[in-house]
């Protein structure tokens, strides 16, 4: 699962200098961009300003100026700072409007998806945790566990404020003239993984996020950077072509409303990203995925992200309603658990949101909500050629064009 963008610092001290690397969380693009990995060498004098105690053999990993969360008893109307809430008298910038509208969109999407999930289950309810940060930001984590239909369903939203070093900002923007000063950033997103119990009902993952940097202090007029990312993908244990075609058709319809090149481009991007390298196979049957998207009009991309988030329920819930009560055997369940094992492997080894959170001390319950309750690993398991299990594995090894 991919939570909204934050940043991490990795500082390794040597006898002459310290090495600093900044990783934006959502840098999953196959394109080569300067924001994917930024590296800098600082002198000893500069390093002291980081207030990190190092020795010649110590490596320190920490989040860059991101406050720890504080539990809350009630949901606030917004997690935005007052200056970013466009309903506030102090808010006037177009940037604040985009932040506010995006937060409202993801919270509305969280409500609609959770309502549909509870409706399909027929009885189980989401457990909700609300948290905030003293300097602004926060989130709502919702988990439904061990229901009639759902083994585990998580739907999270969050708003994050942080600060990155000025050197990272200069490298990202190629603005050598920018004066030193901390570079504030903002990130917001919705992230969800839905694991049904029935092996004939597919798992779904979706994530949509918005990232923005402000100009550094003492650098008026410096360029602001922003981008959108996200996607929706399907991970079944058994293939029902009508289901997969329906799912991809909804994704294509959402994309085609904005650009006919989006679906083929983002479908391939999804196949390439959810790839388990050590297995030589994809996690599932794909969907759409995009990141670092800022080469279109900002309003258009905000509308596109909204359309994608609103497409989750019509793309997925009809499939669940059709398959949730299908009779199955222990053999079917065992295969589902093996595929769940692949899901765990991808998320813990390759998913950048998960691995970042584990390395930087993020909220562990939110980070690992993407994992299923149960999974299975068998030594050297190979499905027999021609079986339904083999057909699924073959589609994961050789991605298909479903529509």
TrEMBL record:
Keywords: Chlorophyll biosynthesis, Chloroplast, Heme biosynthesis, Oxidoreductase, Plastid, Porphyrin biosynthesis, Transit peptide. Pathway: Porphyrin-containing compound metabolism; protoporphyrin-IX biosynthesis; protoporphyrinogen-IX from coproporphyrinogen-III (O2 route): step 1/1. It is found in: Plastid, Chloroplast. It catalyses: coproporphyrinogen III + O2 + 2 H(+) = protoporphyrinogen IX + 2 CO2 + 2 H2O. Its EC number is 1.3.3.3. GO terms for biological process: chlorophyll biosynthetic process; protoporphyrinogen IX biosynthetic process. GO terms for molecular function: coproporphyrinogen oxidase activity. Pfam families: Coprogen_oxidas (PF01218). It comes from the Eukaryota. The keyword ATP-binding does not apply. One of its GO terms (cellular component) is chloroplast stroma. InterPro entries: Coprogen_oxidase_aer, Coprogen_oxidase_aer_sf, Coprogen_oxidase_CS. Residues 66-101 are annotated as: Disordered. Homodimer. This is coproporphyrinogen oxidase. The gene is LOC115988031.
């Amino acid at each position: 699962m991919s939570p909204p963008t934050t940043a991490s610092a990795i500082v390794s001290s040597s006898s002459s200098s310290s090495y600093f690397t900044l990783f934006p969380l959502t840098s999953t693009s196959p394109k080569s961009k300067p924001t994917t990995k930024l590296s800098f060498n600082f002198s000893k004098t500069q390093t002291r300003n980081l207030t990190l105690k190092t020795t010649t053999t110590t490596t320190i990993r920490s989040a860059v100026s991101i406050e720890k969360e504080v539990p809350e008893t009630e949901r606030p109307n917004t997690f935005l700072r007052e200056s970013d809430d466009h309903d506030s008298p102090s808010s006037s910038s177009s940037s604040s409007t985009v932040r506010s509208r995006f937060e409202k969109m993801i919270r509305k999407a969280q409500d609609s998806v959770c309502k549909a999930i509870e409706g399909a289950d027929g009885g189980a309810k989401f457990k909700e945790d609300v948290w905030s940060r003293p300097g602004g930001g926060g989130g709502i984590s919702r988990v439904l566990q061990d229901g009639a239909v759902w083994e585990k369903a998580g739907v999270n939203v969050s708003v994050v404020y942080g600060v990155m070093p000025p050197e990272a900002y200069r490298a990202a923007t190629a603005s050598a003239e920018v004066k030193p000063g901390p570079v504030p950033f903002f990130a917001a997103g919705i992230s969800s993984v839905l694991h049904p119990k029935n092996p004939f009902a597919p798992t779904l993952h979706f994530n949509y996020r918005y990232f923005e940097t402000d100009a550094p202090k003492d650098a008026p007029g410096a360029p602001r950077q922003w981008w959108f990312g996200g996607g929706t993908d399907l991970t079944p244990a058994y293939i029902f072509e009508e289901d997969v075609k329906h799912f991809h058709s909804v994704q294509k319809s959402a994309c085609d409303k904005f650009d006919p090149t989006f679906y083929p481009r983002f479908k391939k991007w999804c196949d390439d990203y959810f790839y388990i390298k050590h297995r030589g196979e994809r996690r599932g049957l794909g969907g759409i995925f995009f990141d670092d998207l800022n080469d279109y009009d900002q309003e258009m991309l905000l509308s596109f992200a909204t359309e994608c988030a609103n497409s989750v329920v019509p793309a997925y819930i009809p499939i669940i309603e059709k398959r949730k009560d299908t009779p199955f055997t222990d053999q079917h369940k065992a295969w589902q658990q093996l595929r769940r094992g692949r899901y765990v492997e991808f998320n813990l080894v390759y998913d950048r949101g998960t691995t970042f959170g584990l390395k930087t001390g993020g909220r562990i319950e939110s980070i690992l909500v993407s994992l299923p309750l149960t999974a299975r690993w068998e030594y050297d398991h190979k499905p027999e050629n021609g079986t339904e299990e083999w057909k699924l594995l073959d589609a994961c090894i050789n991605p298909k064009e479903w529509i």
